[in-house]
């Protein structure tokens, strides 16, 4: 049954694709929901999965259709989850930078922060000289932008720019695993 539909889809029959979507809609939704654990995200992801299935059908070689679409669905859901986690981490970094010491800090947060500070201390000499002072002051000594600007006799904006460029440099030159 699936193979007949697939051949019709490959030859341009859109109705056959709608039948395939109807047949597997709930299955794909539950598959991506199992990874994402969010109904709205799972609905969006399921639609995206069907688009991927449609565009990937020319590469399908009768190796078990349900297994093939499951692999596409799971991989897509994992990608979405990773992006969401990355976005959350970026938001946390921005939060840390704006408030430096969030109220009700968890022990886990403090331990991770200490580990990152230790890694930074060990790698500080690798940084270009013009970034070292602001990175050390902000991340290791917990100084604010204003304190650093006063100490270095520069504007606060200069401190912000140096920290931004230092982070870009670290992302480019150091493994992400070292600081995630």
Automatic annotation (TrEMBL):
Membrane-spanning segments: none
GO biological process terms held by the UniProt record: DNA-templated transcription initiation
Coiled coil: none
Gene3D superfamilies: 1.10.1740.10, Winged helix-like DNA-binding domain superfamily/Winged helix DNA-binding domain
Signal peptide segment: none
Domain (RNA polymerase sigma-70 region) ranges: 20-84
A Pfam family assignment: Sigma70_r2
Highest taxon, organism lineage: Bacteria
Protein's UniProt keywords contain Transcription: yes
Record-level Gene Ontology MF annotations: DNA binding; sigma factor activity
Residue ranges of domain RNA polymerase sigma factor 70 region 4 type in the record: 118-170
Sorted UniProt keywords: Sigma factor, Transcription, Transcription regulation
Similarity comment: family membership: Belongs to the sigma-70 factor family. ECF subfamily.
PANTHER family named among the record's database cross-references: RNA POLYMERASE ECF-TYPE SIGMA FACTO (PTHR43133), RNA POLYMERASE SIGMA FACTOR (PTHR43133:SF51)
Protein name as it appears in the record: Sigma-70 family RNA polymerase sigma factor
């Amino acid at each position: 049954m699936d193979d007949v539909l697939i051949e019709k889809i490959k030859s341009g029959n859109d109705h056959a694709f709608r039948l395939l979507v109807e047949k597997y809609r709930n299955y794909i939704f539950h598959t991506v929901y199992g990874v994402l654990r969010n109904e709205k995200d799972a609905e969006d992801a399921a639609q995206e999965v069907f688009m991927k299935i449609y565009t990937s059908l020319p590469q399908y070689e009768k190796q078990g259709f349900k297994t093939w679409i499951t692999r596409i669905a799971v991989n897509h859901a994992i990608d979405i989850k990773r992006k969401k986690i990355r976005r959350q981490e970026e938001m946390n970094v921005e939060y840390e930078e704006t408030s430096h010491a969030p109220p009700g800090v968890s022990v886990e947060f403090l331990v991770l922060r200490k580990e990152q500070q230790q890694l930074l201390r060990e790698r500080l000499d690798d940084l270009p000289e013009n970034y070292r002072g602001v990175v050390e002051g902000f991340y290791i000594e917990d100084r604010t932008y204003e304190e650093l600007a006063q100490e270095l006799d520069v504007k606060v904006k200069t401190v912000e720019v140096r920290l931004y460029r230092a982070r870009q440099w670290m992302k480019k030159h150091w493994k992400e695993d070292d600081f995630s």
